[in-house]
């Protein structure tokens, strides 16, 4: 019998807006209604996340009140952490923890000494030793999905499915490599 514990993976996601009919319309999400949207995002989340994985939700989690948020959190696999977004401020960090997030932050978080996790994008240039992972901008074309110092994890950009930190890291490294090969572009 193999008794080694499976190593936790780290996933990121933002802007689920569970239960929000307006975001479904504004962002032209490919779901006929919010019930279908919520059910499909839960299915996609649970298809990739295991119970001991860590999931950093970078804000704008849920509409519909505390009971609905608690119900949703209980259906989602993983150890969940919230960086409060502009649509999450109706509850305090402690209230979000009481609903089921393991931890809740109202300021950006530095992860693995390199990634700054925030809800809205932050200014990070190539000379800084960090990369910013964020949400908030959804599918707005003014923002690239990935650059050499940032990545947007709004659900519209990641197929409504939590994305592995390692995948983002590899994408950022590839963007940096491309910028080094073609610096004037």
What this model shows, in words?
With 185 residues, the protein is an alpha/beta fold. The chain contains five helices and ten strands. Strands 4-3-2-1-10 form a five-stranded mixed sheet. Strands 5-6-7-9-8 form a five-stranded mixed sheet, with helices on one face. The relative contact order is 0.17.
| Total number of beta strands | 10
Estimate the strand proportion. Answer: 15-25%
Mean pLDDT reading: 93
Quick one: biggest sheet? 5 strands, mixed
Report the principal-axis shape. Answer: globular
Helix percent band: 25-40%
Number of helices: 5
Give, in spatial order, the strands making up the sheet with the most strands: 4-3-2-1-10
Distance between the termini: 54 Å
